[in-house]
């Protein structure tokens, strides 16, 4: 094993999926540990709490060299129950086994919960934006960003030390409603200031139901949204959100209905991306005419349009 060039070991580590796999490779020898160090922090995940965001900023101060190697950042959003009494906390369905906890431990966990919730309640839009700007500025080589809910699991249970410790301390888990629009409004408003970030993945429910989306993110060329809530053909927030990425090369889009299933429709014909090459739709309702218009608009550039489920075409009388 020692005869393997260290450059090859580094490249192997670069293509591993998780830091756990990289850690196993590092245990082979000291030489392997040295060779894999540059990619150990290629992927960083941060939970959207004041404590975790502050810890992330401290990471850069402690290890600026490691921060300079980060390529992908995942931000996990969380929505917590707001409970004002020990009784409400003890009986809430999100509380972890309160009946089997000694009374003094129960009280201690409740006060830890109240302290945590009060800290989160004092957050403002402006302070959140400042924190996020500071975090994105820490990673000069960051190219890919994932905005997820803590419960939006695609590949089994999420492993996050901060989340596990927090859950154990306050003995309650977040809601399972995987919506991330609150964090999206804060984060996407600052993305134009980071042109090195070209890929955005949102594997959660995104409900753009309030306000018009007037920002333009010209740097994003790859967009993947798992569940974009659609409320009818004239849902202008959806249209303006999708059109806010004018330079897309690749789009993966899944939708869900915000009302009746027949309202789960997007006016594809009104969307124009001059550089689009690949489009992948999931659970999309549209009209035959819009499919035709989309084909006309994109025909000169696009070479791949595919779906995991058939597109439901609504015929108009």
TrEMBL record:
Top-rank taxon, per record: Eukaryota
State what protein this is by name.
Answer: F-box domain-containing protein
């Amino acid at each position: 094993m020692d005869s393997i060039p260290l450059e090859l070991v580094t490249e192997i580590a670069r293509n591993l999926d998780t830091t756990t796999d990289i850690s196993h490779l590092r245990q082979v020898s000291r030489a392997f540990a040295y060779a894999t160090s540059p990619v150990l922090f290629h992927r960083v995940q941060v939970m959207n709490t004041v404590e975790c965001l502050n810890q992330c900023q401290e990471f850069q101060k402690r290890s600026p060299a490691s921060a300079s190697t980060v390529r992908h950042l995942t931000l996990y959003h969380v929505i917590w129950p707001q409970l004002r009494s020990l009784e409400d906390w003890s009986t809430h369905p999100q509380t972890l086994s309160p009946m089997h906890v000694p009374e003094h431990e129960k009280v201690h966990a409740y006060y830890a919960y109240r302290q945590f919730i009060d800290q989160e309640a004092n957050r403002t839009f402006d302070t959140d934006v400042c924190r996020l700007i500071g975090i994105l500025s820490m990673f000069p080589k960051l190219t890919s960003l994932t905005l997820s809910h803590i419960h939006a699991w695609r590949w089994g249970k999420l492993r996050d030390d901060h989340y596990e410790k927090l859950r154990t301390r306050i003995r309650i888990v977040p809601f399972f409603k995987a919506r991330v629009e609150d964090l999206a409004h804060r984060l996407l408003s600052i993305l134009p200031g980071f042109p090195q970030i070209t890929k955005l993945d949102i594997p959660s429910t995104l409900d753009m139901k309030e306000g018009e989306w007037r920002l333009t993110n010209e740097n994003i060329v790859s967009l993947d949204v798992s569940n974009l809530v659609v409320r009818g053909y004239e849902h202008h927030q959806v249209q303006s959100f999708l059109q806010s990425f004018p330079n897309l090369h690749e789009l993966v889009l899944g939708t869900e209905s915000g009302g009746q299933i027949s309202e789960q429709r997007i006016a594809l014909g009104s969307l124009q991306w001059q550089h689009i090459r690949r489009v992948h739709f999931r659970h999309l309702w549209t009209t035959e005419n819009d499919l035709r218009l989309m084909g006309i608009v994109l025909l000169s550039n696009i070479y791949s349009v595919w779906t995991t489920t058939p597109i439901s075409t609504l015929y108009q009388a």
